[in-house]
Amino acid sequence: MAFLRDKDGTQHRMVLDYEKKVNFLKQSLHFEPRGEQFRLLESSSTQRFVTLIAGTRFGKSMIASADVAAEICLLPQRTKKALIWWIVAPDYDLGALEFDYIYDFIVEAGFIPCDKNQVPANDYKNGYVTRTENKKPTINVYYPLAFDVKKDEYSFQRGISQIQIRSADTQNARTFQGREVDGLIFSECSQLNNLKYLLEHRLYRAVGSRVGRVIMPTTPDGLGYLKDVICARGDKDSNIYHKDWITLGPYASTEGNFSKDEYEYMKDLIGEDSPGFQEQYMGLFVPRSGRVYKNFFEKTHVFTKAQEDKYLLAHANYNNYQIYLGIDFGFQNPCACVFAAKIGEQYVVFDEIHQAEMPIHDFGNEIKGKLEHYGIQYYQAFADIDHQQTIILRKMGVYTQPARKHDQQSSIEYVRNQFHINAASKKPNIMVSERCKKLIKELMEYHYKEETTDVHNPSELPVKKDDHACDALRYMIWTPSYMYSKQKKEKVA
What we know:
By secondary structure, this protein is of the alpha/beta class. It folds into two domains: about 10-280, 3-Layer(aba) Sandwich (Rossmann fold), CATH 3.40.50.300; about 300-490, Nucleotidyltransferase, domain 5, CATH 3.30.420. It has 15 helices and 20 strands. The chain has a nine-stranded mixed β-sheet, sandwiched between helices. Helix 3 (about 60-80) packs across helix 4 (about 90-110) and helix 14 (about 435-445) crosses helix 15 (about 470-490). The longest helix is centred in the C-terminal third of the chain and has 25 residues, at about 470-490. The protein starts with a strand and ends with a helix.
């Protein structure tokens, strides 16, 4: 991004006002952003680093290109400084899409396309744009110059902005060293195995001295550094959140350009539970072997505060419901407790506790505090078996029963089935309040080992990581069901 310096040398990144940028896109580029695409334009006026996670045909490349084209066209004429932007992609072919979009937008804005050797040397009234298709495809932008009537001359020497495709494969990564740019589009970076190295050793440094921007539009491709680090830096709930980052999405394809009819067609063809559909059309991060609770979706199973009356009367007496608690102990790992009301066949999970390095007495007080807050007097709590911990909780007035921890595959399968739509009620048997952020996050990310080929193989268990709220939910739902089924068998016997 172009910057100006104060007398003390301080750099200030120059940005386009959001409203002016949108108006320029509509009026000069004849481009109409759609749906969540506006979020990228809005964020780029305040954040240096933007990660855009979305399904295929959302319009990631187009909106990122329109954003950059607006700044290429307008900023140098205001700041008197030319810009250098890179399009960094896994290979040149993947970068060509943004390259073509940016070139077409610049032409649409009124810059005259011509051969590099044919740019009129003495024509300062018009802007020109050239493109070369050599080893490093490059766009050069020549600006019209403002005429100073008082001095009877043009106000500054014509500058040339440049947009260039750079391949991010290992062979070409060394060419980034020592270069300075005002910004870069890092396209489809989820496909790179060397993403961490490229960012930390090459690309951050390239935008550093010019206070530049990084836009990362990508469709998810498995798990890894992009999800665990890059996206986490833009998440305010993350412990590595950084104020200059923002993560947008994940967005489904239909929240941008993709037809809803085609989306529904592909869902029927591929299957909503398919990792391929979830990744390519829903924009979700999916491990190679699939999510454990692959039929849990935020749009289906999560209710908002405004919807509480629909699922759980906000001012009702909770003691009129069957109240269940699921508890998973930890210290370095988080202590987790989920709270649910069972209404008919449906479990409505309405709150949670989830915190690492929490002493058992503090955990007990947190549980008691939640029970008092909701006025709950009668409940059943099913806890991970830890005799010492349960004794302490009992002394504090929190009474638990041992959770059924055996038959992990069977219990996971049972909970998974509760996320299916109940044929009688036309609703899932588990609904989760949006305030249960940790549980929702774990349900979306809990997965089998990457090398697993058959997720139904009983010998394969999920990865033992970030699963504490999931375990608490499983104890809470599976244990009473198992106890009930066992009682029925004993009566029959």
